[in-house]
Amino acid sequence: MKVLVFGLGALGTVYSCLLKNRGHYVAGIDNASVVETICCDGVKISGIWGEHEAQLDQVVVSLDELSEQDYDIIILSVKAYETAKVTQSLQPFIKTNSYLMLAQNGYGNYEAATQFINEAQVILGRVIFGAETINPGFSRVTVIADDVILGSPKQLIDQQVLEQFAAQFTEAGIPTRTSTEIMKFIWGKIIYNSALNPLGAILEVNYGKLAEMESSQELMNQIFEEIFAVLSAAGQSTLWPDAKAYKKVFYEQLIPSTGGHHASMLQDIQQGRHTEIDALNGAVVRLGEQHGIDTPVNRVITALLKAKETMFLKS
Questions:
Q1: Do 193 and 131 share a domain, yes or no?
Q2: Considering 189, 209, 244, 247, which one is annotated as catalytic?
Q3: pLDDT tens-digit profile of 247-259?
């Protein structure tokens, strides 16, 4: 298949490298410094999925430089705050039989993307393996908590199409399956990330350390309680009946398998970039306000993270 990976950060590098090595046509797009490095050195990954490297078919800075115009799938792995702008620019590349896969963190990406792209061509991906950027175009896969999940929130995409993409990703080395309840999985990741990402960035520790310390554990538990209260008020079900059930899975299953990972939000701050806090805890606060649910811990965590972001942000 023909693949365009928009955003060659940690996640985009993994997808582009493994798919190219499986024999697919893969083009990538990112900023000039990243493109320059990848054109010279290719893309590489290391870590729990082994050592891999590949030369992509094309790597460019802007869409108008692409020699190929027809893609079977475009994998979007940019930050949540860039989703609307990028998907608007991608409109000419979404042809009759092509799809856009959102492989991002946070709440609101689907809503932003479907302002410009037909919902019947937008795939939501729940990605819960962890990758850290070593250098531009070089990622280390550190942890995996579960398969990638693909789905269409309103069941507008033929299940066979989703299964075919899942099979192609799995064959490339990225374990993937499909679900007709994708939003339950998306919210599962939002809950997970809302506890671990901002606290991991503020305290500069890995996920396992956050679960070990009583004070940070208490904060995470309160984040969970607030999110489940908001989701209940919004009528959004999850894979767990309540916060208590989620905590059991979080501490007994998710943390043991991902404890060594450092939050991408910490990497963003260290590199002077904006974070996705508004698509995580910030989104919880906004949904809480819409449904009359107070979320004081999520509000404070959002404010603290934004303060730290401001301290390190490059102009």
A1: no
A2: 189
A3: 999 999 999 988 8
